[in-house]
Amino acid sequence: MELARQNRRGTVFNAPYKLIPQALLLIAFFAMIICLTLLLSCSNGDDTTGSQGAGIGEVMGSVKDEDGNPYPNTVVKLSTGATFIETKTDSDGNFDFNDVAGGTHEVTISLPLSTEGVTNTSTAINVQDNQTVTVDFVIRPLQVKAHLNFGNVQLLEEIKDENGNTPTDPDEPLYAENIFDEPLGLLTAIKTPDGEHVTLSEFKSAQGNLMVHCNGDTSIVEIALEGMIPNGTYTFWLAYLNKTRSVGEPIDFANDFVNFTNPPIGSASGTENIVVATEDGTINTSLQHTSCILTDEVALVIPVLYHINGKTFGGGHVPDPEEMVQMLAYFQ
Fold it and tell me: Where are the membrane-spanning stretches (predicted)?
């Protein structure tokens, strides 16, 4: 039988006198805890690109309308829980996410301005090792109402009566007030090409809508307006905004516009945005622009300008006495 005795260094066995210090026991215990922790971490690793799953795959797809026209610069998001990455469609409307971790993800598009989804705008996918998942989105452009630049919806408070006040009498003649150019406050009579003074009721008869179709790096702006000034000369402009503004909400000229001088639809020279109304004040036409204006910026307002003297002024500064804004179309 082995006999044991205690001393200050630990437990000593009389035969063959083996020493087991208490410190050694503690070290072994903590080593075991560390090993278990590492094993658990390895088995429950968190992948920032995908949910739990094996391998690497690819996610690709497109954003097009029902006619197959591509919409470039559309924002596409690939998300897994709170983690996501973004890309934009190319000029052919295609997008591609490479090296996507296997598992469940969600693909979502941010709709271009004034469009709606024909297919769902968000879809769940499952990525497998060495496989490609294809997600094609189909969208539809919407008609956008053209609002009269008067009353609750105004880009500029430029429509006045002969005394420089807001007109209220349907039969009173209208004037356009200088807002930017000297002399400020100058009133210019708004007349038809044959010299008739336009009244408030005639001005307020204008109505209609615009619709934009993108096709790669071009846009077609379809214009359908009526009640415009008969035989009047009009131009159409791109007032890009860096934030969304609802119809009638005030626009801060110093901070909300992307460009100091708003570009014309079509050529930068302003030679391709000119339209003349018919004798009954109707405009039914299309204009073309060299980008997808529905994905260029965060928001867009298209002002429709009437040229009082019948002359246009190109793509530069808008001279106050020669024009006034009659209609506004908000693309949001």
Answer: 20-40
